[in-house]
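Submission sheet (multi-component)
Chains listed below:
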Amino acid sequence: MADYGTGLPIRLHQVVAAPGGTPVLTGIDLVLNAGGRTVLLGPNGAGKSTLLRVLHGLISPSAGSIVWGDECTRPRGQAMVFQRPVLLRRSAAENIRYALDLAGVHGAEADARIAEALDEVGLRALAARSARVLSGGEQQKLAFARVWALRPEVLFLDEPTASLDPAAARSVEQIIGDIHARGTTIVMTTHNLVQAKRLADDILFLHAGRVTERTPAREFFTNPHSTEAAAFLEGERL
Amino acid sequence: MNTISESLALAAGLVTHFDANLVDVVALSLRVSLTATFFAAYLGLPIGAAIAVGRFPGRPTLIVVLNALMGLPPVVVGLVVYLLLSRAGPLGSFGLLFTPGAMIVAQTILITPIIAALSRQIVADAWSEYREQLTSLGAGTHRAAMTLLWDTRFSLAVVVLAGFGRAIAEVGAVMIVGGNIAGVTRVMTTTIALETSKGDLPLALALGMVLIAIVLLLNTAAHLTREWARARFG
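Outcome: structure written.
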């Protein structure tokens, strides 16, 4: 179960984001409700990762508004896993403890959560190993263990399996499923359409910085509503 | 050639027999430079991390100034500290001039910018890698800076060693503020300068050997530390 419950729904109204001065997102209107698994699809440069960062509060909109629950500041209870995991130069267990410490979880409770999280991702035996010397797949699993221990209300995933081999990717997908099963809302980007089919409840399709459609996943892959999405699924250059 | 070879032999004898005068000078040098390095690291590391992580008006200018201060001429530092600590100066009442304390102050001023500037660069590089993750986890600026200082500790150890190397090899500032008084403020570099001018080459050479040995030892320690850290922590 998530530790927090105040950050949903997330409402974006006419959001413009221009990290680095160039507009990447323009006029985004979006409501993200609790419980689902939303996958952001779109061609390279469509603004998927930027939208994810706006939703997570890492990038502030240059225009428009974003509200988490009833708050205009990013609430606790969100977490994000990046394409390349960023781990501190300390042991696997201490990487999780660091995140828990920032979340205000200490002592025996932290110990229990660390053990549980490492068990969940199958890294218990590597708890004392330095995180930076783990393999790429193990590092990504550790990033998920950190998230598991935090018990977020919303989890943002930016192409979490893009750097992994197929076996490690399936393993990570299983972990994502387990996290969702605990009640965490999932929002992720991927270029892997098969993975999107497996994981998504609904698809948010972006093109040129705009949301061109939002459709239940099954419907999206059989009958996309926008010409851009249809062209994307056909493998055409957009 | 005879003079050189004889001097080298005499110098080696002074080193191997732990000549009392030599030991005193080396001990004072280490005490002064290690203390200065401690204070410089205490000041310079947080300054470097704060500038690396913080965003405030004038930051780019501050970085340029800090980098420029790495090239501070020791004699200028010595002169400024001399003026500050002289009886008529604002800090004259402390009575530090021509004491090891004055030398520590001078060396601290000399190497703090070096440690701050180099640590800023190291922490800034780490910050560009960690920023999104630490922000995502909810780390504020202060916590992020402390985290980065700890996570880059092995690279920063090399920075501190570089600062110590600069301090112990420096001669101009300690000569001015210490006065090169025998048994009180005479350190390795000032002794080498003095004994060479007097033509007493054995002691100067012996101290030179020790100084080079210390520098070599430092570089070996720095290299081994980095290699061990890379293997252990990635």
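Remark: The interface with chain B takes residues 53, 56, 58, 76, 78-80, 82, 86, 88-90, 98-99, 102-103, 130-133 of chain A (CB under 8 Å).
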